[in-house]
Design goal:
Blueprint (H helix, E strand, L loop, with lengths): L6 H28 L3 H14 L4 H10 L5
Length: about 70
């Protein structure tokens, strides 16, 4: 039996950190978004709500394989 990898717990910590930092950044710009029309606000929040997912693909590949590229 092989030793468990430290990459998965560390990767999960990084994912939580990315989400927390991203949420803090969005909260900082929320007052600027609040003055926009509601439809534009919805689009901005939709884009910002999905943008944090982009760095996860290489991170998840690293967690699984130990390499940044799948």
């Amino acid at each position: 039996m092989t030793n468990p990898s430290w990459r998965k717990p560390f990767g999960m910590f990084l994912i939580l950190l990315i989400i927390a930092v991203w949420a803090a950044l969005v909260l900082q710009i929320a007052p600027l978004i609040a003055v926009l029309p509601q439809l534009v606000q919805a689009i901005v929040y939709l884009v910002l709500g999905m943008a944090w997912i982009l760095p996860l693909k290489p991170l998840l590949a690293w967690m699984e394989t130990g390499h940044w590229r799948p």
